[in-house]
Amino acid sequence: MEQGNEKSMGVIDKLTAGKEYYEIRLESIGGLGANLCGKMLGELGVKYMDLNSSSFSSYGSEKTGTPVKGFIRYCRKEKEIRVHSPVVEPDLLVVFHQALLKDEALWKGCTKETNMIIALEEGQEKVSYPQGIGNNLGACFGLEAQRIAMETHSRINVVMLGAALKLMGLESPEMGEQICKDTLGKKYPDALEANLEGLRRGYREVRRLELPLETPENSTASKKPGGEEVWGYETAPIGGINPRPGSTVVSDLSPSRQGYIPLFIQERCINCGLCHSTCPDMVFQFAKGEYKGREMMVNQGLDYYHCKGCLRCVDVCPVNALVRGMEAEHPNKEFFLPNQELLRMPEYYEKAGPDGYITSESYLTEQRMEGGEV
Ligand code: SF4
Ligand code: SF4
Predict the structure, then answer these.
(1) Residues 100 and 130 sit within 8 Å (Cβ to Cβ)
(2) Rounded Cα gap, residues 51 and 334, in angstroms
(3) Interatomic CA distance for residues 171 and 157, integer angstroms
């Protein structure tokens, strides 16, 4: 960590060294709490660090599963913040989930001045990134954020907040604790102590990772025919078609599940199509088939790559043909019909293991049982 701090100047260091702004970009998935984390970081600057700050987030129309970005800017108190655009070249990049590393866009704007924090899997020491674009980092840090959140019964956002405070150069997590008390203390007093512990552990347990990070052999970052990897129009497919449009339809959303999946019991299904019209991510696959002796569109199964585990389909199914199950207990999902055409980056895809973690007490007490459970 000391080694990292030598290289990585904190907020105050950079601002007093003449930098106009200190900028943070949060990269996350809806449901992990990055929006709140960004708000707390912004308020922290004004209330406790004697700085000016701004913070805003960008996210999709749905609460869970869509990409979320948070942008935080600090500057000296006597200066006005006149820039209100997203953070392009972050001093600190905070990545809430491994799956996001596959996206080249995440690495845009990283320079040798950029420090990165990544939420690691348990026991993980290496991090993969698209070849040729992950070298532009000052230093990289990691912590097992999900495990810490699970053990402390807090949320991953406060753990990442604690880690960010460390990289911002704060000598203790005290100011972070204060902002947590201000924000969470009123709204969720029962959960406050757990979240404070998550924050402290995030601050303590973030550690430096060796650079360069591991590069996957099958990397497919924009390649010229000769193998050289570059960004730019020359590497765009013929016709200028964007093969990775920003729709959630083509994203691999499996990492955003938080322990639960819908399970399909085909013999109960009456092919009413309610699940299909309710699912925000076009997970259900209907094809011509036969039901009760009549030819009709029949529910064939689910493309779990795009299922973010919101369980709306379970709520609407009138005959309990969809029920809630623990993903860890169903590693081989029956009726899993992957639609490779829709995968955002099929070459990068590594089958995501079941996500059995429960990151918050609220999930333990969740009462969404109408659809039944197996
Ligand atoms: S809502 Fe239920 S019954 Fe209707 S098509 Fe979907 S799974 Fe089948
Ligand atoms: S849980 Fe159901 S509604 Fe939600 S994304 Fe998955 S299939 Fe669609």
Answers:
(1) no
(2) 54
(3) 20
372 neighbors 320 (Cβ within 8 angstroms): yes
How many A from CA of 253 to the centre of ligand 2? 10
Instruction: Give CA separation, 298 vs 28, 120, 286, 334, 347, in Å.
Output: 36, 41, 5, 16, 30
Q: How far apart are CA 278 and CA 38, in angstroms?
A: 31
Per-residue pLDDT tens digits for 88-128:
999 999 999 877 877 777 888 888 889 999 998 777 777 77
Instruction: Give the class (CATH, top level) of 247-364.
Output: alpha beta
Task: State both tokens at 7.
Answer: 């290289």
Helix (H) or strand (E) holding 158: helix 156-167
Q: The whole model's pTM is what?
A: 0.66
Atom of ligand 1 nearest to the CA of 320: 2
Close Cβ partners of 323 (under 8 Å, ≥ 6 residues apart): 262, 263, 265, 314, 371, 372, 373, 374
Which is higher by pLDDT, 14 or 234? 14
Structural domain boundaries in the chain: 2-209, 247-364
Q: Which of 166, 115, 178, 372 is nearest to 262 (CA)?
A: 372
272 CB less than 6 Å from ligand 1? yes
346-370 residues labelled b (16+ CB within 10 A) or e (exposed): eebbeebebbebbbbeeeeeeeeee
- From the list 202, 236, 235, 209, the residue with the least C-alpha distance to 134 is 209
Atom of ligand 2 nearest to the CA of 302: 7
Distances (CA, A) of 231 to 102, 156, 209, 222: 15, 32, 26, 6
Q: pLDDT digits over 149-164, tens only? A: 888 989 899 999 999 9
Tell me if 125 sits within 8 A of 209, measured CB to CB: yes
| 49 in contact with ligand 2, CB cutoff 6 A | no
- 221-256 burial string, b = 16+ CB within 10 Å, else e? bbeeeeeebeeeeeeeeeeeeeeeeeebebbbbbbb
Atom of ligand 2 nearest to the CA of 283: 7
- Paired strand residues for 299: 286
> How distant, in Å, are the alpha carbons of 30, 100, 120, 199, 345 from that of 348?
21, 11, 18, 32, 5
Report the largest interatomic distance among the alpha carbons of the chain, rounded to a whole angstrom: 77
In the CATH scheme, what architecture does the domain 2-209 have? 3-Layer(aba) Sandwich (3.40)
